[in-house]
Amino acid sequence: MSFIKKEFEKYKEVIPNGVCSSQRHNDPRIFVKAKGAYIWDSEGKQYTDYHAAFAPMLLGHNDNDVNDAIMEGIRQNYSLFGSGASPWEEGFARLIVESVPGVDKALLVNTGSEATYFAIRVARSATKRDKIIIMQGGYNGWHNDVAFNLQDPWEKVSSYKKGEPMELFPFSSGIPSNQKENTAVVQYNDLEAVENLMKTGEIAGIICEPILQNIGIVKPEEGYLQGLRDLCDKYESVLIFDEVKTGFRYSIGGYQSICNVVPDLSTFGKAVANGYPLGVIGGKEEFMKYFSHSDKSKQVLVAGTFNGHFIGSIAGITTLTKLRDQGDEIYGHLDKLGSQMEAGLESIWSAKAVPFNTVRQGSVFTTYFMENAPKRWNDIAKNHDTDLDLAYRKKLVNAGLYFVPMPAKQCSISFAHTKKDIDNSLEIIERVVKEL
Length: 436
Ligand SMILES: Cc1ncc(COP(=O)(O)O)c(C=O)c1O
Description:
- It is a single chain.
- By secondary structure, the protein is of the alpha/beta class.
- It has two domains: about 5-65 and about 325-435, Aspartate Aminotransferase, domain 1, CATH 3.90.1150; about 80-325, 3-Layer(aba) Sandwich (Aspartate Aminotransferase, domain 2), CATH 3.40.640.
- Helix content is about 35%, strand content about 15%.
- The strands form three sheets. Strands 4-10-9-8-7-5-6 form a seven-stranded mixed beta sheet, sandwiched between helices. Strands 1-2-3-13 form a four-stranded mixed beta sheet. Strands 11-12-14 form a three-stranded antiparallel beta sheet, with helices on one face.
- The longest helix is centred in the C-terminal third of the chain and has 24 residues, at about 325-350.
- It is globular, with a radius of gyration of 21 Å.
- It starts with a helix and ends with a helix.
């Protein structure tokens, strides 16, 4: 048994599965250090990181500016005061309000799941309805409202008909069976299914990643996001863009500033604090007012001992300030490297007799082993060669490139990556693909 496997067995004695997130139970490896574009495992092996810890590392691991700002906070004896407000909450909220079109006010929590939880609570309070719509293949966190229908196999989802909602498949045990009364699932890019649900008058809101980024990269068809906006307006439901993954990857204004569709509420996390815990709920005054509604019966509770903690808030302030002040340089560099990677992958995989499709948005990319770019999860479930994808990823990891060994997951390039990193990575990928 290898050193790492033996170590991992010890972890399992004290932690279920040996690791504190089910999502990280995917690779028998123990990581101990990270800097810039690289991560190291407990045997000292270095990897060029394309996983970015499920996406937060936009500037790269342990960005000096972010770390220095946190250390300075510690030196200043900042703390969790547990009463009253702190300047860093206001500082962060002001930055995000100034940057994102759909955000008049913002609240700071600690994770993306908390942010989506509270956004849904506001949608219910504002509409006095209970049911929310989520997307097959979308991920909005671990809580009961949204823990349905992610990467279900083709046998389960093949009965899908355009215009109709999907059967609900929880991805956790322990969700109350009556939760199904309050959640509905549709396929992405199927506006008809959304309208058919809305016509019932039961829908409080839709929560949607504007690009589905938990099943690789599935982009909205022309007019889809505007269509969701129009339907929410028509049926007086709340549109929530879950920008936990899209937020700040492509623009300081979020993806909403690129697609020009303004949601009622937005949620952010991950890249907003470049790897430190921070979740954000932001939105229009009309909806954010529910957190401080003058009518107590309409007031939505937002609570959390660690909400607005200085470490996440200062990490967020420093990250957003960098994105604001050096945006052209940062997003220009990210896009250039993304495009270099895409061109390299196209050329490498073209030499192989398998169908493939590399989908990219800025610095994020996924290669699907299927003919056409997917429009929804069902396209992937039916056509993507997951065995090939997994074998490819595992070989890349062994060769020193960390592509998370889970099929159809996105890869992310950070600002710390260089052209040379991509050149070297493409050389390795070419070798691995030839051997596959
Ligand atoms: C789009 C999206 N929303 C919400 C979440 C939940 O965020 P967290 O894991 O910080 O709770 C995630 C996490 O992967 C996500 O990708």
